[in-house]
């Protein structure tokens, strides 16, 4: 068995890595996407069970969301004690180890090519479970995205795949996590492409779709085929409701902008001790937990009650606004909470409240409260995340009703425009990245360069040579007809020169060599650094690197060429080829045309 495994890792894996370097590695990416979905589905199942089991044991009636039935004292103590404990744990961690959630995944994609550590997944798992179990205003979808992205990234790192493939696997993990959390595969795919990757590519769709589907199958095997919310048949009763839907879109767009602004404003306190910030967030949660306990935990029981029309106007309005305030305060102060679930909660309650107003204004034609709750969910998600397509797909999959498409498209796009164009807000995740002093590169050129590894365009016809060699050694070197010669120095490769320049030098010195041979002198030694040649300064780049990383290496080192290397053993580097900046430019121009 051991011999078989060594044969697999020794023969199959190098071949797989070579084939994964280009943008056309679709069949292999599809298989990896399928595996990513299965792994992510299993991880999300474990994460959900870690939340539900203690809550079902602790909360009344055996429900994992009935925080409202706890007594006042318990409701007040639970979030504060949980926040203090989380603060103490987080305080012991290094600053980089504290980062969790979708924002951290986007940071790792933009600055570290999707490499995410196992330690960050452990921190996210513990903090994600703790925030929900202790009644913080939180959700499980953001932590789920982090977990799915991490384990998919780890799979790629373990296989030592090139970085462009690891980036795709991270997107697969994000899509699989959303799919497994809501049982909505399509919205998972669109979320990964629109929110996290910020690009749509044909090559990316296939593995991401397979990841989302396989993750949904894994969770359906345990939780069944029903989506996260129980939604009755919904339909728009009359087109006369369209103006009111536009009014609701404006209201939700304003609420989304307020939510993003509150989170952004509190970001200026990031330099304060993390223990104090998280403890303060827990203290602020106490009055909300006592007087508006619906804000505790995930709150999907309140969302379902809203869809069923069981809650009154003032309660819906109070709960929606309270959720907006306490969630923004908690996230802004550094509580490691998920934001996607609270966003849906806010949208459902505010949309349901506005639906009740519409029913009072026009009782004969008004649609059901459930319709307005679902529209509000989509509008808030689209506006806060600036992801209208992902929000539309989520509403469609959750309702499984095509009749909702027209009003959903209208309210989601309008709310998103109000938030982005009227108030100038970017998505919450980009806003949080900016508050950390980070940016997110999403230009078409950068995205195209990230999809391809240096291994796809490097020139492999190379030979390594010592700086000093005899004419006989030089001729032997040229017999294999290399295109480039990498000149070795005392501390590694020092220059790159065309092999044809050495061949030309040998031709020019043939007569001189003949004379020395007739006189009995030894053939002269050649110094490859001093002979006439078009030499280039050279710097290393790792085999896994993308073309974007290669360009960054050119700028960092001012080198004229890069040699592509990989660690094959401790202290041993193998060189596979060379890349010029002109090669990258030519490749991009060819692909674009």
TrEMBL record:
Spans through the membrane: 25-51, 76-95, 200-222, 242-262, 274-292, 312-332, 339-357, 369-392, 404-424
Keyword terms: Chloride, Chloride channel, Ion channel, Ion transport, Membrane, Transmembrane, Transmembrane helix, Transport
Keyword 4Fe-4S among record annotations: no
Protein name in UniProt: Chloride channel protein
Top-rank taxon, per record: Bacteria
Chief place of localization: membrane
CDD domains linked to this entry: Voltage_gated_ClC
Membrane topology, record value: Multi-pass membrane protein
InterPro entries tied to this protein: Cl-channel_core, ClC, ClC-type_chloride_channel
Cell location: Membrane
Pfam families: Voltage_CLC (PF00654)
């Amino acid at each position: 068995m051991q011999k078989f495994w060594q044969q697999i890792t020794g023969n199959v894996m190098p071949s797989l890595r070579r084939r994964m370097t280009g943008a056309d590695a679709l069949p292999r990416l599809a298989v990896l996407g399928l595996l990513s979905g299965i792994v992510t589905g299993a991880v999300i199942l474990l994460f959900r069970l870690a939340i539900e089991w203690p809550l079902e044991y602790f909360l009344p009636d055996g429900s994992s969301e009935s925080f409202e039935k706890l007594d006042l004292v318990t409701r007040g103590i639970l979030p504060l004690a949980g926040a203090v404990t989380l603060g103490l744990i987080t305080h012991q961690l290094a600053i980089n180890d504290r980062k969790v959630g979708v924002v951290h995944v986007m940071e790792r994609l933009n600055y570290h090519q999707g490499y995410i550590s196992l330690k960050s997944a452990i921190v996210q798992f513990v903090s994600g479970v703790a925030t929900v179990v202790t009644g913080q205003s939180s959700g499980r979808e953001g932590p789920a995205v982090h977990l799915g992205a991490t384990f998919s990234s780890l799979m790629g790192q373990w296989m030592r795949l090139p970085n462009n493939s690891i980036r795709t696997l991270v997107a697969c993990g994000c899509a699989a996590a959303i799919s497994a959390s809501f049982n909505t595969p399509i919205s998972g795919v669109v979320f990964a492409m629109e929110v996290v990757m910020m690009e749509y590519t044909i090559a990316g769709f296939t593995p991401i779709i397979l990841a989302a589907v396989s993750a949904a199958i894994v969770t359906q095997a345990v939780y069944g085929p029903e989506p996260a919310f129980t939604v009755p048949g919904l339909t728009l009763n009359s087109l006369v409701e369209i103006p009111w839907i536009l009014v609701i879109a404006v209201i939700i767009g304003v609420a989304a902008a307020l939510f993003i602004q509150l989170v952004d404003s509190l970001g200026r306190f990031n330099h304060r001790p993390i223990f104090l910030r998280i403890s303060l967030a827990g203290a602020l949660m106490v009055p909300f937990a006592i007087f508006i306990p619906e804000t505790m935990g995930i709150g999907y029981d309140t969302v379902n009650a809203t869809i069923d029309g069981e809650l009154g106007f003032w309660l819906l309005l109070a709960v929606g606004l309270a959720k907006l305030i306490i969630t923004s305060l908690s996230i802004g102060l550094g509580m490691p909470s998920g934001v996607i679930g609270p966003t849906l909660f806010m949208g459902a309650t505010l949309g349901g409240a506005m639906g009740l107003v519409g029913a009072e204004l026009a009782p004969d034609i008004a649609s059901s409260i459930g319709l307005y709750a679902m529209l509000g969910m989509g509008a808030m998600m689209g506006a806060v995340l600036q992801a209208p397509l992902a929000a539309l797909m989520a509403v469609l999959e959750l309702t499984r009703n095509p009749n909702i498409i027209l009003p959903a498209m209208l309210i989601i796009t309008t709310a998103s425009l109000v938030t982005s164009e009227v108030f100038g807000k970017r998505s919450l995740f980009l806003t949080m990245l900016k508050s950390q002093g980070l940016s997110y590169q999403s230009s078409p050129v950068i995205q195209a360069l990230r999809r391809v590894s240096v291994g796809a365009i490097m020139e492999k016809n190379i030979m390594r040579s010592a700086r000093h060699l005899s004419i006989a050694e030089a001729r032997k070197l040229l017999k294999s007809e290399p295109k480039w010669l990498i000149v070795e120095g005392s501390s590694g490769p020092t220059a790159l020169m065309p092999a044809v320049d050495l061949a030309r030098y040998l031709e020019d010195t043939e007569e001189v060599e003949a004379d020395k041979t007739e006189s009995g002198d030894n053939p002269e030694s050649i110094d490859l650094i001093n002979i006439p040649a078009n030499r280039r300064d050279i710097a290393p780049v790792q085999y896994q690197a993308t073309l974007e990383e290669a360009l960054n290496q050119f700028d960092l080192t001012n080198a004229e060429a890069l040699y592509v290397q990989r660690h094959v053993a401790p202290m041993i580097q193998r060189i596979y080829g060379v890349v010029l900046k002109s090669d990258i430019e030519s490749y991009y121009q060819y692909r674009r045309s």
